[in-house]
Amino acid sequence: MIMAINVEQTKKYYKDIKQEDLCDCNYCKNYYLQVKDAYPKVAEFLDSIGIDIEKPFETSPLEPDEHGMLEYCICQYIVIGSAPSELSKEIELKPLEHKKISFIPDEFPQLNIKNPRLWWPNGYGNPELYTMHLSLMQDKTLSDLQTVRFGIRELSYELTIQQLGKTKRILFNPLDAYANHKVIFDNLQKVELSPNCWIPSIKENVEAGIEELVEDQSNPYIIIRVNGKRIFCKGGNWGIDDAMKRSSRERLEPYIRFHKEQGFNMIRNWTAESTEKVFYDLCDEYGILVFNDFGLSTENHNLLPADYDLFLDNVNYIVTRFRNHPSIAIWCPQNEGFPPAYIENGISKIIAEADGTRHYLGNSRTLNTRPSGPWNYIQPTDYYTIAQGFASEVGSPSLPTAESLRKMMSEEDLWPIGDVWYYHDWLKGQWGNNAFIQSYEEGINNQFGISSGVDEFCRKAQLVNYESYRAIFESWNSKLFNTTSGVLLWMSHPAWPSMVWQTYSWDYETPGAYYGAKKACEPVHIQYNMITREIEIVNTSLQSLSELQAIGQIISLQGKVLYEETSHLDISPNQVSTAIKLPIQNIPNECYFVRLQLRDKNRIISQNFYWISDKKPHDYTSLNNIPQTTLTGQKLTVHREKEELKGSITICNTTDKIALAIKLNIRNAKTEDAILPVYFEDGYFSLLPGEVRSVKFELPITYKQQNLKLTAEGYNIPQQDISTTF
């Protein structure tokens, strides 16, 4: 029998044990003192399952050997976990017979789980998973074996619908509504509330799983609940896994982890680009909800399947294959548009009969959602005017670092911009009314000045990326559950080595877009509203926080504090609060900084840093005149924990100059090559004169075989070493 060990509970159990709780005989005292040094590998293994080798409850030694040494043969430890229940049925199968076998709680009481460990999305709790082993025995011989992991959670949805000619705001519980495996919603009989905003009709006789909500009917957008709690969905669209598909777990895992590290809790599997089980496994493990399209592409492009029935067979296969993954939150037919009636009716029937635990959303951008876009560069302030509803696609081009570009093309192709750039998605021309790349390139050049080479251009682009991606999420944050309920980037995951639409690069580099999104998606976050000029505190967690201190500062380009204000406040879960309004109109400088901090009694909870220009259009060329400066690193610590190296370093700005947009890297000390992936706590942060910042990092243990060092660079900081080798 295999026991499922709860490592965290076991570790807490041993942490709470006091010395007086242990045996105090001389045998045991000797064991406590010497065992970790004597058996380091055993200690490491026990630590991996939560047991402290120095805290046995009893030891039993053998007789002394010829040297008078005692060898301990029995040591008693306690481990917390659960032993699996075993259920079985005897069946008979005739030749070529197919039979469905059911195990139900009425027949097997062990299936009634009291106080289950619930699966939660990232930022709201742990994504707890259970393991089930399935075996088929024939004449006491193993015929087949399958292992299934699943999570226990309940999905429900706030929706606006039409029923008997009346518009209603409802709470929809699929488990109850689909109990009879009947279709609930009629997306063919949809109703247009306003331009590009549709709601579904609901069957006349549906009552189970439908609770009418008495609230403002003017907000028709979907809100997803997990275990009864509202989830503010933040994430991005997933492009192609890799060029040849069938990506390994080793290749994919850093990408999914990047989503978690950014504070994301949802990935849209755009047009079912990922079809691999490992994709859903990783989303389960990291607490990432999946907005799952089926394989239909964009409306009005004549891309419908040639064989409708074959397509529906594929939909049924996808649903039955992946339905046990707790991460999947939404089924959706296609990208942008309503499918033909035959396909729509077929998918609705499949969801009702084969799943019945989650919502089928009939259109990604107009049914209980907002229209897609924009996808081109716009001013960060403009996002506050368009932030509304649940957005399945919003984005901006996102150029990688120059270091990543050098892995994509030869040196002679890097500058000036030419055909090889165009090959990697730097496409000029119009798509509808949006000039994607033109607007982005012009935004960089007009705000920061014309660049003389690729390194300068990419360095400026990172500030634009950081600011844009932060603004997307912060603008939606500002209207939290008032008129907004979720925003997904186009895109978070790069389809291939690309110049645009990504928060991290194909090579695992984390540029400005990554850290801008990561900053805005903190569970508890302080931000500057670019329209109201107010300092807002956004709490998307389920915890109340009290006795907080919000500090807002206006700072000159020279690092001098021009204005400072402090506010004290308490914040509730799933709420945005206003703390301070800064008197920006009284600041004579055309370009300045705003620095924010949110503290409790013991620590900084959130901090943020903005470069602000009141010129129209924004002019940041004065940032180019900030003198270059240097940084130092102190208090480097590195230790091994399971399969990772974990460490921290304190970055010090000991000069009298501001250090703008600091980016850290771990490099091979001999080759200078960047080690990737690395998971840094923060990046593109800024330090005032005399300021220090401690930054944590993690990287795979495999890199311990190399001589490593930490480097720093920034907008006004040439690349420099800030640590000794480790």
Category by helix and strand content = alpha+beta
The CATH topology name of the domain at 155-360 reads: TIM Barrel
Low-confidence stretches: none
Largest sheet: 7 strands, parallel
By DSSP (H or I, 4+ residues per run), the number of helices equals 14
Radius of gyration, whole Å:
28 Å
| Tally of strands | 35
| Overall helicity | 10-25%
How would you describe this protein?
With 726 residues, the chain is an alpha+beta fold. Among the domains are: 4-82, no CATH class; 155-360, Alpha-Beta Barrel (TIM Barrel), CATH 3.20.20.80; 522-613, Sandwich (Immunoglobulin-like), CATH 2.60.40; 632-721, Immunoglobulin-like, CATH 2.60.40.10. The protein is built from 14 helices and 35 strands. The strands form ten sheets. The chain has a seven-stranded parallel sheet. Strand 26 (591-599) and strand 27 (604-613) form a beta hairpin. The radius of gyration is 28 Å and the shape is globular. It starts with a strand and ends in a 5-residue tail after the last strand. 39% of the residues are buried. The mean pLDDT is 91.
What are the defining features of this structure?
globular, Immunoglobulin-like, 32% strand, five-stranded antiparallel beta sheet, alpha+beta, TIM Barrel
Please summarize what this structure is.
The protein is α+β, with helices and mostly antiparallel strands. Among the domains are: 4-82, no CATH class; 155-360, Glycosidases (TIM Barrel, Alpha-Beta Barrel); 522-613, Immunoglobulin-like (Sandwich); 632-721, Immunoglobulins (Immunoglobulin-like, Sandwich), CATH 2.60.40. The protein is built from 14 helices and 35 strands.
